[in-house]
Amino acid sequence: MPTFMYLMPKIGYAPYSAGVFLCRKGFLKYTTVSAPYLGGHESTTICGSRSGAIAAACWALTQVMGREDYKDRLLVCMINLEYLREQLRTLNQNGQERVRFYPTRMNIQATWVDEDILAALNALNDDGKSLLDKFCIPGDTFPEDLTNPTWKDRVIIREVPVVRFMAMPHLTRYRINEFMDELLAKVAQFAQ
Length: 192
Prior knowledge:
Helix content: 25-40%
Distance between the termini: 52 Å
Structural class: alpha+beta
Radius of gyration: 21 Å
Strand content: 15-25%
Number of domains: 1
């Protein structure tokens, strides 16, 4: 499979349930779960009653869009993601690190933000929604230091809250600017 297709979650307009699970030979046994509805057998989640229409839809999309169209769409996503990073970097002022990006080669960027920015992102607006809700930005946790493994001597290394930005084909500079304007206004409000 070409690398660019691997890096394109949801970009290919494939049906949502068209996910793929890949596993090294010999490791499939570790994915089994009890499936009482199969008469006491175990399910590996590989076989099942999935509709063949999903595979047919994915094949049709690759035939219609083609490799170059996929590449062009991914390029636009990556350009917009870099633009978003540039805008977020403006929050790092006076030598103060308020935003840090985790390494990525995908169109999804995990981003650490300081407590004030995180509070601004989570603050509820008059409509009862936060900026994270309004702009569909999920939160997550990542190891604070990616140079160390998450597990060290069976003790979890400190994890910190992050937000994940996903550069999809519908993300535009206009939408990025709208998000940044609202974020900067919230940050200024919290600074008072």
